[in-house]
Predict the structure.
Amino acid sequence: MHRITFDLDVLRSFVTGIELGSFAKAADKLGRSTSAVSAQLKKLEDQVDAPILRKAGRGLVLTPAGETLLAYARRLLELNDEAATALRGVDLEGWIRLGMPEDFGERVLTDVLGRFTRAHPKVRIEAKVARHAILLDSIASGNLDLALTWDAGVPIPQSETVGELQLRWIGPAGSAALPKPTVQDPLPLIAFEAPCLMRTAATAALDQAGIPWRISFASPSLSGIWAAVAAGLGVTVRTDIGLPANLQVLGPDICPLPALPTLGLIMYRAEDNPSPATQLLGEIMLDAIQSPSRPLRASKPAPLLRVASS
C-alpha cells in the first residue's frame, strides 16, 4: 500500500483558506500567490485521489473527503507548532504568574496551560482569574508577569493590543421576541457589580437611545451572570467569547436594542524585557485567541457550509 506523506505547508494553506473563508485571503496571509495556493490544493487532491472541494453556486464547499482531511490537518499542524515551540525553549525553567478574565478562563486558559506545560514541563505557572481592575492592579504592583484583559484606557508601557471584540446583547437560547421596554416595564439588565466596562457600555447605549432599564441582577462573577440570563431574569452585554450553549446572541429580530461599541483586548507584561518563558507563553496566548481553528465559544460551532472562492 502506497503511504501518503502530506506536506505541512500545503495543509496549512488548506486549513487557512477554510478558516478565512477565502483561499485568496489565505494566500495573502501566508505570503503566497493565489495560483500557488491553487496548485497546493490540486496537489492535495492528487495525493488523496479524491476531490476535497466542490463548487456550490458562487462558492466552494468541502466534500466528505475534504471534511475528513480538514480534521486531521488541524491536528497535524497543531502538533507541528507545539513541537516547534518546545524546541525553541527546550531548557526553559522558572515560574510565571498569569492572569485573565473569567470570559477566557474555561477555553483559553485550558488550551494555553495544556499546550505550554506539555512543551515546557519545568516551568511552573500560577494562574489567576479575576476582573480586569484586579488584574491591572496586580500587573502594576508586580504580582503578575503576564495578563490578558479588557482595555480600560489605563496606560501601561508594556502592553500589546490583541484586537477589538464586538459587545453583544445576550439572552437565553431560543428567546422569543422581547417586548418593547417602557417606563412601567423597563428592560431588565443583568451585569457585574459596578464598576464594570460592559455594564457602563450597556447603560450608556440604552440611555442614548432613550430606552428605560433597570438592573434586575448584579453579580460579582461571570458564572452568576450566565445563570441569571439562562433563568430568564433579563439580558446582559458581553462579547460572545466563552458564551455557554444555553445562551445566544440576540439579533435585532429578537431584541431591537441599540448598537453596542467594541471593546479592546490587551495583553499586559510586568517587564519590558520578559523572560523567554514569559515571552513564549504570551505567544501561545495570542495564538489561542486569534486562531480560528480554536473556537472560543463553549457551544458547538456551526458546521462549515460554504467557503467563498475569493
Notes: The longest helix spans residues 64-88. The chain is about 40% helix and 25% strand. Residues 292-310 have pLDDT under 50 and may be disordered.
